[in-house]
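In this section we walk through a basic example: taking a raw amino acid sequence and producing a predicted 3D structure, encoded as discrete structure tokens. The instruction is simple. Fold the sequence below.
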Amino acid sequence: MTTSDEVMRALKAVFDPEIGINIVDLGLVYGATVEGSTVTIDMTLTSPACPLAGVIEAQANAIITSNFEDVDKVKMNWVWTPPWDPRTMASEDARLELGIW
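The resulting token sequence is shown next.
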């Protein structure tokens, strides 16, 4: 059975199209749960008005459903609180790439 940790590792293959860094290292993914054949991803975007939400959602769906045979459905739970803050949420590597010290 697919685990939340496996889902989080797989999501590192999903990149924010504008920034070019994966959504996990950016700190956009707040968590993932697996219930039966459904994966729910709690995540935010760099901005609530991000025009590429659909692209990121489609990438995440494709990555998860193609990597885990026991997953039939991926649900995105868009979370806006707390708002994304790269200084506290992005990984050290992502902050260095973004030029945030």
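Looking at the output, two observations stand out. The chain has four helices and three strands. The chain has one domain: 4-85. In the next section we compare this with other chains.
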